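Researcher: Sequence recovery benchmark, item below. Answer with residues only.
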């Protein structure tokens, strides 16, 4: 047992009290956070423009400060680009710009401050501490290497202030020494931007290590596991032939050239998931790495919004009200010119909302563009996180990526499918409309059964979809096999931190990713 695995449980027990307070006092914490943000930023240009000095209650805050998004905040961001040391939206200077993943359009350069990053570090710590507290065996994650999938911290600069991806920036600036110690393999691999070269570099590194966890960019981690399992085995054997690692590769290599990753990494117990809905991949990951626990995190370019604090499956992600002041726009209001946002205390279990964020990073009543559903309100827990506006409406069914993720997840459970990549394409041929699931499976799956299970699951949660199918306005969904990873194509065509697209109307992509 390493020194880390002995010391960390002590720290985790201390953090357990903080976690208990977060779960038991969310409203007091989020309102206190708002007061501290208003006090800290009252003398900024943004604070003066919106009368922070005279705001005393959350109600006054929502009445006097309008809702913002990236485009309405641009005048302030442009001022920051020109004078990053002046208090424009934060009292302390901007120290870095985050290149967003570009999920909702062109990548953006978002400012972060030192105080905002300190909150980011606090939240990151809770992710690890809650995992450790969930079981004594979890401390073994520190006995080996936690492989971190990160993007470059430095892509350039804006008026002398560096620009990079959050996964890279956080590893350079994160305050906690414990977390810094976990961040491997290092700059040489982190800074690679070619996905093929980067995944092969990770593969060579990981063969030499006792890998106990995977974390960072989840789309990249999933691609890495898939390639390790199905593609890299023979090449790794050739590369390490004659070394001390050859025998371990041979023991893990099956007759068909695939790798048994449980044999290769018998001590891998953590898979950290951030930025995507990982539910559709759970069946495959649990079969591939049966000892690993999937630990969800909810974060973005503007901060960390939630993480797994409860050691129970299917309990969603718990929000972090001590880091952010939360408001929510009901789904029925999101497309209105002046939507009404409600506080955390008024949300309802089972309802879907657009999240509105206020935090020390300088984002105030900020619409980050995410939609989510509350799976519970005691404590406040969310799931089915997707992007606002990602809706396909071929025949009145108003299908969203949340419907797709849930439908694919349930289809995997019903058919036993081990899904490793997918996208759903809305198509119109002549007067007929239907959806095509392009999916890559690790096991043999009856495509017709999978498509039927998808339709059945979506109908349970989308009355318009059910009506359109039953009345013939929409033809039944079909499923086809994906043979070339769509997600990897997105990353290769855009950037290493790009996210997958569960729902699209781009029919042309089918020809490039199928047999």
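Model:
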């Amino acid at each position: 047992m390493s020194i880390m695995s002995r010391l960390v449980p002590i720290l985790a027990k201390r953090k357990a009290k903080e976690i208990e307070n977060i779960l038991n006092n969310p409203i007091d914490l989020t309102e206190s956070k708002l007061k501290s943000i208003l006090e800290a930023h009252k003398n900024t240009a943004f604070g003066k423009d919106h009368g922070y000095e005279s705001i005393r209650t959350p109600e006054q805050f929502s009445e006097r400060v309008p809702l913002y998004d990236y485009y309405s905040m641009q005048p302030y961001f442009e001022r920051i680009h020109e004078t990053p040391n002046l208090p424009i939206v934060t009292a302390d200077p901007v120290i870095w710009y985050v290149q967003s993943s570009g999920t909702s359009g062109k990548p953006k350069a978002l400012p972060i401050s030192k105080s905002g990053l300190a909150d980011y570090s606090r939240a990151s710590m809770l992710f690890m501490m809650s995992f450790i507290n969930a079981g004594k065996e979890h401390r073994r994650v520190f006995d080996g290497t936690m492989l971190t999938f990160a993007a470059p911290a430095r892509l350039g600069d804006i008026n002398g202030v560096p620009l990079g991806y959050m996964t890279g920036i956080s590893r350079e600036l994160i305050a906690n020494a414990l977390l810094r110690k976990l961040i491997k393999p290092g700059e040489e691999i982190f800074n690679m931007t070619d996905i093929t070269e980067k995944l092969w570099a990770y593969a060579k590194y990981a063969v030499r290590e006792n890998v106990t966890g995977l974390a960072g960019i989840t789309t990249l981690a999933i691609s890495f596991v898939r390639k390790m399992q199905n593609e890299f085995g023979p090449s790794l054997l050739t590369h390490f032939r004659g070394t001390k690692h050859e025998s371990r590769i041979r023991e893990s290599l099956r007759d068909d050239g695939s790798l048994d990753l449980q044999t290769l990494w018998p001590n891998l117990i953590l898979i950290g998931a951030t930025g995507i809905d990982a539910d559709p991949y759970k069946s495959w990951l649990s079969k591939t790495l049966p000892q690993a626990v999937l630990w969800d995190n909810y974060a973005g370019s503007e901060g960390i919004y939630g993480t797994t604090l409860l050691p129970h499956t299917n309990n969603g992600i718990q929000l972090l009200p001590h880091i952010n002041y939360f408001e929510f726009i009901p789904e029925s209001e999101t497309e209105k010119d002046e939507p009404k946002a409600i506080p955390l205390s008024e949300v309802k279990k089972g309802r879907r909302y657009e999240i509105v964020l206020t935090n020390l990073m300088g984002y105030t009543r900020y619409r980050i563009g995410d939609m989510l559903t509350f799976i519970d309100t005691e404590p406040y827990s969310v799931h089915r996180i997707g992007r606002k506006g990602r809706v396909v409406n071929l025949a009145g069914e108003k299908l969203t990526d949340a419907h797709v993720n849930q439908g694919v997840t349930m289809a995997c459970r019903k058919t036993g499918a081990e899904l490793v990549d997918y996208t759903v394409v809305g198509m119109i041929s002549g007067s007929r409309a239907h959806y095509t699931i392009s999916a890559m499976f690790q096991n043999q799956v009856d495509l017709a059964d999978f498509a039927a299970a998808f339709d059945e699951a979506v109908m349970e949660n989308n009355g318009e979809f059910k009506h359109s199918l039953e009345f013939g306005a929409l033809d039944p969904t079909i499923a086809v096999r994906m043979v070339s990873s769509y997600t990897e194509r997105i990353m290769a065509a855009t950037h290493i931190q790009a996210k997958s697209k569960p729902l699209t109307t781009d029919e042309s992509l089918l020809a490039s990713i199928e047999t």
